[in-house]
Design goal:
Layout: E1 2-3, H1 21-30, E2 41-46, E3 52-58, E4 64-69, H2 79-90, E5 94-98, H3 119-132, E6 137-143, H4 145-154, E7 165-169, H5 175-181, H6 188-207, H7 223-234, H8 240-247, E8 260-265, H9 273-278, E9 285-290, H10 311-322, E10 323-324
Parallel strand pairs: 4-5, 4-6, 6-7, 7-8, 8-9
Antiparallel strand pairs: 1-10, 2-3, 3-5
């Protein structure tokens, strides 16, 4: 596939009530949005370590397959996943709405945790899609945590079965830096929510009968602490620093070997735009840094060409159309 952007994107101009990275992030996730109403085929994808994850498959006639991967604490029914699936369906594309291991309808099916470096899990889903659609073009879209994992996959890190093209949204390409920012100021709100989700994920594994190590987590423990006590050792890393260093996509952007769009916002509260500006990127990468948008918020004061105030939907619609066979 090739990336041919025929029309320049109209910038995201935020309304006064959603001005700034925090307002964009919070309101972008709280405001209601449409959901896909079609009946899907629910499939369990076998992973190389014996775990499974669950994806929702919607067939389509266009000759393009779109894979959607959610962020930390998410699942396939999150609003950004649903809205993007609707955009792809309107183009006639087949869609795989993917739950990471242990998430959504896959709760209890996985012993090991998902994390920002699980490019092998994304690869397993794409391998299943290629088996079903051997002649199709395959486009993967990753959000936040999954965007980082997708960039690793696009660079051939930790897994080999790639999509034909990729779109990464607000990827925390420097995991150590993101974890540090999450414990500062108002960002603690996001960190606290992530930790609630992680505690719930661990509890669901225990409830399913999986052996989960005991952790001495403080009541207000941070994601940095959780990564050191649980994510790193259970993910096969020596410690938190080894996990962050091994799985941060920043160092691998220059090795990306497929057409890739990277979208981020300069005012993302916990993904430092300086890492993007300093990174070396492959000639196959189209890096788009939007001035406003927060972390996957992107609310605009004027209707986009799609007729809504969701600039992210408009951007993803534009990027999907710009990826040509």
């Amino acid at each position: 596939m090739r990336f041919i952007l025929e029309d320049k994107l109209v910038p995201c101009e935020p309304p006064l009530w959603a001005f700034g990275g925090h307002a964009q992030t919070i309101f972008g996730h709280l405001l209601p949005s449409p959901t896909i109403q079609e009946t899907d085929e629910t499939i369990a994808v076998q992973l190389e370590d014996g775990d499974r994850l669950v994806a929702h498959h919607f067939p389509g006639p266009s000759g393009t397959v779109v894979y959607l991967f959610h962020g930390l604490g998410g699942e396939s029914h999150r609003s950004y996943m649903q809205r993007t699936a609707l955009l792809a369906r309107k183009m006639g594309h087949a869609v795989f709405l993917v739950n990471h291991r242990g998430c959504g309808h896959g709760r209890g099916l996985a012993r090991a945790p998902y994390h920002s470096g699980r490019s092998e899990d994304l690869s397993a889903v794409i391998q299943e899609g290629r088996r079903r659609y051997p002649q199709a073009k395959h486009l993967a879209i990753g959000f936040s945590l999954s965007a980082n994992a997708l960039l690793l996959l696009a660079a051939g890190i930790r897994a080999k079965t790639q999509p034909d093209a990729a779109i990464a949204v607000n990827a925390p390409i420097n995991l150590a830096r993101a974890s540090e920012l999450l414990v500062r100021g108002l960002n603690r709100v996001y960190d606290f929510k992530f930790m609630e989700d992680m505690r719930d994920a661990v509890a669901s594994r225990r409830d399913a009968g999986h052996v989960v190590p005991e952790m001495k987590l403080r009541r207000f423990a941070t994601l940095r602490e959780f990564d050191n006590l649980y994510t790193a050792p259970e993910g096969g890393f020596n410690n938190r620093e080894h996990y962050y260093e091994s799985c941060s996509a920043k160092l691998y952007l220059k090795n990306i070997s497929i057409p890739t769009v990277i979208l981020t916002a300069a005012d993302d509260p916990f993904v430092d735009v300086a890492d993007y500006r300093a990174a070396q990127v492959s000639s196959l990468v189209h890096l788009h840094i939007e001035k406003h948008g927060g972390h996957m918020g992107y609310l605009t004061r004027k209707k986009t060409p799609l007729g809504t105030y969701r600039w992210l939907d408009y951007a993803l619609n534009t990027f999907m159309k710009a990826l040509k066979p």
